[in-house]
UniProtKB/TrEMBL annotation:
Pathway: Cell wall biogenesis; peptidoglycan biosynthesis. Belongs to the peptidase S11 family. CDD domains: YkuD_like (cd16913). Residues 91-207 form the L,D-TPase catalytic domain. This is L,D-TPase catalytic domain-containing protein. InterPro entries: Beta-lactam/transpept-like (IPR012338), LD-transpeptidase (IPR050979), LD_TPept_cat_dom (IPR005490), Peptidase_S11 (IPR018044), Peptidase_S11_N (IPR001967), Transpep_catalytic_dom (IPR038063).
């Protein structure tokens, strides 16, 4: 199955102090050229689209792959993209998770309009972020190892995410309406109707307008941080409390593992048990694994994010295919607006993983909105999960703020190349309102002192 990149998208951004660099401008004029190849494989049609989305202003370009695309959370931009697909007479699926409707367009004309019965909760293990995906396969019945249920007329479109009919247990009993594994569930007859229309490679546009920048304001006061690179901003209003050299590329050390966890949960069946091999047993702060050990990917996320386990990172990565996993890390970075970020390994120990404070703010925002459970794991106090309790006990937590009740999550790093690095997110009361604030510090000699100084300054000033 062939996947072409979505290329040449410029994300115009507002250039104001309220960290406008991270806000997508509503006025997009998109020129979309579309080429279709038809490939016959075992008497089945596979469609591959090469889609170029190019802004008319021409002030910059970004390459995008099929996958999550936060720009499509912008309602106006999504409408422009959908219209261009129709005008080019493309065949594609539109899943609107806000209105809970699914449409199928054939040669640009709507031929199917059906209700979505359920979806994954936003920010949960099962939330599906906005993006452009493709139908990756078709099964009349798929058995899900997540929920131990049969899913009729299944069409996977992203990692573990499917469009499918009403699930049932092996004994034939249908699941309750409250049951959801996070896929896009349709009525069974509706799912069959869609199944009969789509081909492998058919684009799937997913939209959910869940996050909107608000207008909360602060009085402007500046803390005195000493680090060479830092950024502290409100994740909702994008107000910048303080910043320095936010575009400067720096080694990020173990902050890398936030992206490692993100790619793992979006592309791997985390209930899968793997066998630990000797190549996975790299040097790490708290060795916990041994050759021949059987462990779930899910369980490895906990030492990865609390103890910064290099072993866990290598085990997750090597199980999937190390080279391809790292490729996906870089693809994901581009997809969520991390323009100056490069990953060469899943741990951060080599020093060649580079990013900027602005890019890491974008990563923090993506995790906060779409994958908040990753942040919860990093706090060491995950309150609810779709899974059982983790296998590893008595884990240490190297995050500076793990004992702070308003700490939402984050990651620290430390290496000779990167020096000390930190990304931390808080939900703290400011001016009488609870606000999410992200702090990024790179290249410091004292991330604990600097970050706690900012935290105290923030609480005292607001």
């Amino acid at each position: 199955m062939h996947h072409d990149e979505i290329k040449e998208l410029l994300q115009s951004k507002q250039g104001r102090k309220k960290f406008g660099k991270s806000i997508l401008v509503l006025q997009f004029l998109v020129i979309l050229s579309l080429t279709v190849w038809i490939v016959f494989v075992e008497a089945k049609t596979e469609i591959s689209y090469n889609i170029n989305l190019d802004t008319y202003e021409g002030s910059g370009r970004n390459d995008f792959h099929y996958g999550s695309w936060p720009a499509l959370e912008n309602a106006e931009f999504f409408e422009v993209v959908e219209k261009k697909f129709r005008n080019e007479r493309a065949s594609f699926v539109v899943a609107n998770l806000s209105s809970l409707t699914l449409k199928y367009y054939q040669d640009g004309k709507e031929v199917l309009n059906i209700p979505i019965q359920s979806k994954g909760r936003k920010g949960s293990w099962w939330g599906t972020p906005a993006g452009i995906y493709t139908i990756q396969g078709k099964e009349q019945n798929h058995f899900s190892s997540f929920g131990n249920v049969n899913m009729p007329w299944s069409m996977p479109f992203q990692g573990n995410f499917f469009i499918h009919g009403w699930p049932s247990y092996p004994n034939g009993e249908p699941v309750q309406s409250s049951y959801s594994g996070g896929c896009i569930r349709l009525a069974t007859d509706d799912s069959k109707a869609l199944f009969d229309l789509v081909n492998v490679g058919t684009p799937v546009l997913v939209y959910e307008n869940d996050f909107v920048s608000d207008d909360f304001t602060y009085s402007l006061q500046q803390p005195d941080l000493k680090a060479p690179v830092f950024l502290a901003a409100d994740l909702k209003s994008n107000f910048v409390f303080t910043e320095k050299n936010v575009d400067e590329e720096r080694s990020i050390a173990s902050i890398t593992k936030l992206m490692t966890a993100l790619v793992a949960v979006e592309h791997i069946n985390i209930e899968q048990q793997i066998t630990i091999t000797n190549t996975m047993l790299v040097e790490t702060s708290v060795p916990r694994l041994w050759a021949g050990q059987r462990v779930k990917i899910y369980d490895l996320l906990f030492p990865l994010l609390t103890e910064s386990s290099n072993e866990a990172a290598e085990a997750i990565t090597q199980q999937y295919g190390r080279e391809r996993f790292i490729e996906i890390m870089n693809e994901k970075a581009k997809a969520i607006g991390m323009k100056k970020t490069t990953f060469t390994d899943p741990t951060g120990v080599r020093g060649a993983n580079m990013s900027t404070a602005e890019d890491l703010f974008n990563l923090a925002k993506y995790l906060y909105i779409n994958r908040s459970f990753i942040l919860e794991i990093s706090t060491g106090r995950l309150e609810s999960s779709a899974y059982e309790k983790p296998a590893f006990t008595n884990l240490q937590n190297f995050n500076v703020f793990n004992r702070y009740q308003d700490f939402v999550g984050g990651k620290t790093g430390n290496s000779s190349t990167a020096k000390e690095t930190i990304v931390s997110i808080f939900e703290t009361e400011l001016n009488g309102v609870r606000r999410p604030v992200a702090l990024v510090i790179l290249g410091t000699n004292d991330f604990e002192g600097e970050s706690k100084y900012f935290y105290d300054w923030l609480r005292n000033r607001y």
